[in-house]
Amino acid sequence: MPLVTIRLARRDPPASKEQKAALIAGATKLMQDVLGKRPEDVTVLIDEIDPDNWGQGGESATVLRQRRREAGG
């Protein structure tokens, strides 16, 4: 039974129910197409992480996003 974990830094606005449903359906289809897994055997977990708890290059995602907004990106 495959378990697919999708980790996202929470954003504003957060991912909608429809977007999450599309991620679940897409990951399930990928497991079916690539590994021949039955959809009913695939479990998908979406883990939204607070951007203060996610870092890259020594800075939190909150700081990186703020810097990107200030730079116009």
UniProtKB/TrEMBL annotation:
Keyword Isomerase included in the entry's annotation: yes
Keyword annotations from UniProtKB, A to Z: Isomerase
Assigned EC number: 5.3.2.-
Enzyme active site: 2 (proton acceptor)
Pfam families for the chain: Tautomerase
Xref: InterPro entries: 4-OT, 4-OT-like_dom, Tautomerase/MIF_sf
One GO MF term: isomerase activity
Protein name per Swiss-Prot or TrEMBL: Tautomerase
Source organism of the structure: Variovorax paradoxus
